[in-house]
Design a protein that fits this description.
Structural class: mainly alpha
Helix content: 55-70%
Order of helices and strands: EEHHHHHH
Radius of gyration: 16 Å
Strand order of the largest sheet: 1-2
């Protein structure tokens, strides 16, 4: 029940459903600016790992995380070394407070908390596990992580662009 497509060179890649494709293309549109070229490279790697045979689910999640970490570092006023829950609370929340007020601010705060949860979940795959034989994440978790990561990435780019415009 998975969707695949062939590229112009005859390679077969995971395609996903229409929503999966829409989210991916929406994030890619935001990554088109030169400012985000390093993040775009990692983002494209994530989908490449997902489309591998067999899918390299751990690599897909970790490279998707890296794309987010790159953009997060670009939009942080105070430079940080990593993307973690404390950095989101201490650096990202103040940025959101500059952009969103009243009801929008309350909603953005709740979304920020969801982003923290996504980052926490990704760290389970980014860091070594206490097992003798590594186990790849199941495909359904990988697809969810990569797809949600694309949505978070799109939002980070929009926040970064808004902050840049406000600072001109």
């Amino acid at each position: 029940n998975l969707y695949y497509e062939a590229d112009k060179k005859g390679g077969v890649h995971y395609r996903g459903d229409d929503e999966f494709i829409t989210v991916r293309h929406s994030a890619l549109a935001g990554l088109a600016l030169p400012r985000y070229s390093a993040a775009r490279e990692e983002f494209e790697k994530a989908y490449g790992y997902l489309g591998a045979h067999p899918p390299q689910t751990k690599d897909a999640i970790t490279t998707q995380f890296e794309s987010l970490e790159i953009v997060f570092k670009l939009c942080s006023v105070v430079k940080c070394q990593r993307l973690g829950t404390e950095e989101i609370k201490n650096l990202f929340q103040p940025l959101l407070s500059k952009i969103y007020k009243e009801t929008d601010g309350l909603v953005a705060g709740k979304l920020r908390a969801g982003f923290e949860d996504w980052v926490s979940a990704a760290h389970f795959y980014r860091h070594g596990q206490a097992v003798e034989e590594p186990k790849a994440p199941p495909l359904e978790i990988c697809i969810l992580m990569v797809s949600q990561g694309a949505s978070w990435l799109r939002w980070l780019i929009e926040v970064d662009q808004t902050l840049q415009q406000n600072n001109r």
